[in-house]
Amino acid sequence: MTNSLRPGGHHRSPLPPVRDSAPAVPSPRNPQSHQDTPAAPPAGATGGKPAKQRDAFFDNAKYLAIVLVAMGHSWEPLTDHSRAAEALYMTVYTFHMPAFILISGYFSRSFDMRPDRLKRLVTGVLVPFVIFEVAYTFFKRWADDDPTQPISLLDPWYLTWFLAALFVWRMTTPLWKMVRWPIPLSIAIAVLASISPDIGDDLDLQRVLQFLPFFVIGLFMKPEHFQLMRRREVKLLSVPIFACALLLAYWAGPRMTSAWFYHRDSAQELGAPWWSGVVMTLALFGCSMVLMACFFAWVPKRKMWFTVLGAGTLYGYLLHGFLAKGSRFWGWFEDYSWLHKPLGEIFVTLVAATVVTLLCTPPVQRAFRFAMEPKMEWAFKRDAAQLARERAKASSSRT
C-alpha cells in the first residue's frame, strides 16, 4: 500500500447471509460497507418490514484490519533501523490488504449492472477516488514543497490505488460469475502480471491484477466458510502459525525486499529473474490465505465497542494517509531519533491505532460524508423503480 466468536466448538449458528449487493471494504455505508439498504422500500414491499442489521463480525474485521493498515504505515519508517519492526511490517503486509479485498469480493457477490448498484459504485468508489486523488496531489505539493506534482487520474498516488482497483474488480464481477474456473484463472492472471514489466502504471494495473485472486475468492465464499475459519482448532493453530510467520519474516527481512508485498511491480522491475515472479506470487498467495484464516479466527463475532467503527473504515483509510505521508515529508522520524527505540516504536504504534480509530468515528463520518458518500441525485436520472417508490410514497401520504 505504500510508495499499505466466541470460542467454543462447532455447534454455532452460521453467520447471517450477506446483504444484497453491498459494495465492499473498507468503506462507508455506501460502497464498501455491507449495509446496502435503499432509502425507500422497493415496490411491493410491506411497509412494516424491519431493516436488516449489520453483521458485527464483518464490521469488527474491517476495523481491526484498518488498524493494522495504519500500524503498518507507522512501522515503515522504522524498518531500516529495527529488524523486529521489519518482521512485524512484513507479516502484517502479507494479509491485511488481502483480507480487505476478500471481504470486498464477498460483499460484491450480488453486484450486477442494475442502475442503482452502478450509481452506488460511482458515488461510493469512483467519486471518492477522484476527490482524494486531487486532495493528495495538492497536499504533496504543499507538504513536500513539490509544486510540480501532477494531478493524474490514471496514475493513482498512495492510497487511492485501492479505490481504482475496487472499481475495476466490481465492474468485472459479472464476468467472473460466467467463467468455469474463476479462481484458477484469476491466479494465473496474477502470475502473468508479476512477470509482465510492460503493464505500466496506468490505474496501478499491477496491483489490480496481482491482488485480483483475493477479490475473486471473496466472490465465491459463503457464510459457512467464515464459520469454518472461526472453529476452535483454527483459533488455537493460529497462534503458533503467527509465531512462525514472525520468525520467518525476521529471518527474511535482511534477505529480501518488502516491495514484493506491495504487488505494484513485476519481478523484472524489482531486479529479479522472471521466474521469481511466479514463485513469489504463488508463495505469497499461499501465505496470505493462511494468515487471513488466522486473522479471521480471532475476529469477535459479538458486538464490541469498536463495532460501530466498521462502517467508517474508508474514512480512516483515506484520511490517515495525510498524517502518514506528512510525517515523512516533515521529517518527524529523522528529527526525533527516540522514535526508533523500542519505547518509541510502541508509542508510534499506539498513536497510529488511536488516530485511525478517531478517523472512523461517526462525527468524522458526518464531516466528510460529502466526499465519501455524496448522494449526487442531480447527476442521475430516476429509474422506473425509484419513480414507483416515489409515487407509492406520495399516494400513502395522501391517504
Number of strands: 0
Order of helices and strands: HHHHHHHHHHHHHHHH
Distance N to C terminus: 55 Å
Helicity, as a percent range: 55-70%
- The average pLDDT value, as a whole number, equals 85
Radius of gyration, rounded? 21 Å
- Summing up helix and strand content along with how strands pair, one would put the structural category as mainly alpha
Work out the strand percent: under 5%
Protein name: Acyltransferase family protein
Keywords: Acyltransferase, Membrane, Transferase, Transmembrane, Transmembrane helix
Organism: Streptomyces monticola
InterPro entries: Acyl_transf_3_dom (IPR002656), Nod_factor_acetyltransferase (IPR052734)
Topology:
Blueprint: H1 56-75, H2 83-106, H3 115-143, H4 161-171, H5 173-178, H6 182-194, H7 205-210, H8 212-219, H9 223-229, H10 232-252, H11 274-297, H12 313-329, H13 332-335, H14 342-359, H15 362-372, H16 384-398
